[in-house]
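Long-time lurker, first post. I've been practising inverse folding by hand and with some scripts of my own, and I keep getting stuck on stretches where the structure tokens seem ambiguous. Below is the full token string for one chain I'm working on. Before anyone asks, I'm not after the true native sequence, just a reasonable design that respects the backbone. If someone could post their per-position residues I'd love to compare against what I wrote down in my notebook.
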């Protein structure tokens, strides 16, 4: 192999590496990012220490939907919660049952224990441009009922899509 050919090969490898780094940066910055679940408020759906990939672009194209597991950005930290109520809806929890606009809502993502520890709340109307979120472990979750309040649309920075660590839990978030 000639020196010119060897140099050309190194230049091509360098270009490929630079392009790969730029692509990874763009994907990480604008489309996908990672987050670590801290605490047990989303248990058993997501558990403390799990790492999730979240989709950052989805809410530039669409709005959050009921049931989405979202990443909420607050100055002190990010929170992982489930969207329960949408703008303009009325939420009420009575006798451990969730009502949205006076209709019983089946929370099939909750364990029976979580359903029985939801308590009473509301009724409360969600303002325009805001969302009501709760953790799946209702008895210990800091959420819209007790500390986070209504979530502004621009505070929702992505939707949880995939657990990538620990490896025994790899898969789509439920």
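-- Answer (accepted) --
I ran through it position by position. Result:
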């Amino acid at each position: 192999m000639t020196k010119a050919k060897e140099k050309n090969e190194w230049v091509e490898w360098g270009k490929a590496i630079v392009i790969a780094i730029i692509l990874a940066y763009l994907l990480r910055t604008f489309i996908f990012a990672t987050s670590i679940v801290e605490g047990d408020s989303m248990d058993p759906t997501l558990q403390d220490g799990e790492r999730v990939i979240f989709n950052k672009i989805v809410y530039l194209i669409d709005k959050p939907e009921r049931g989405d597991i979202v990443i909420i950005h607050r100055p002190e930290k990010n929170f992982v919660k489930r969207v329960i109520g949408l703008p303009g809806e009325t939420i009420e929890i009575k006798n451990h049952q969730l009502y949205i606009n006076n209709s019983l809502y089946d929370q099939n993502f909750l364990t029976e224990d979580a359903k029985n520890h939801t308590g009473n709340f509301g009724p409360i109307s969600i303002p325009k441009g805001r969302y009501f979120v709760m953790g799946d472990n209702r008895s210990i979750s800091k959420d819209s009922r007790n500390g986070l309040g209504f979530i502004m649309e621009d505070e929702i920075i992505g939707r949880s899509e995939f657990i990538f660590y620990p490896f025994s839990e790899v898969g789509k978030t439920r």
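A couple of notes from the structure itself: Helices lie at 3-31, 58-61, 112-115. The chain is about 20% helix and 35% strand. Happy to go over any region you disagree with.
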